[in-house]
Request: fold
Amino acid sequence: MKITVVKNILEANERIAEENRKLFQNEGVTVINLMSSPGSGKTSLLERTIEALGARVRIGVIEGDIESTKDAERISQTGVQAVQINTGGACHLDGNMIRDALAPFDLSQLDLLVVENVGNLVCPAEFNMGEDHKIMILSVAEGDDKPEKYPLMFHESSVLLINKVDLLPYVDCDIDRIKEVSLRINPDLEIFEISCKTGEGIDQWAKWLLNEIQPQG
Reply:
């Protein structure tokens, strides 16, 4: 019975996610779902990405957290419209939450919508929300064993951003191992080494993202 309930939840989410996807396509908005464990650098990456894309791309952000509005406040300071979702304990965002959070946005005035998911290496990969791409961040401080421990996240992602490479001299992490195992799980995975602190690799990531966006007008 429990398996049936879980199956029904996922099927219901897929229906709503497909409705979201059609809406985004009709409005010409590219949507990315940014996933990682807590503290890997999602919000810092967003700030760097907004800076790198500049006025070329009109961006909106949905921030997902269990509690607080700290990340939405940070993003708002960049001049980008940000909407906060507080899940109240849920470990991921889903299609229904995203649909409810869209009301404040004029999608016709956006090229890119970024969803910063709740920090978690498990559940966010299981729930679609109508996005074009799932993007994963893994910081070197988390170690190089995460692809083996959480393979679904790597399998479902279009891009892996290996963040905090400026810390490599101080942590025990083998980037080559991360790449090898990640590509074994997902041979189509794009991988960028970045540092949100120094800016290393951000231009390459922004170039990839820009190629996925079709600016309106």
Notes: The radius of gyration is 17 Å.
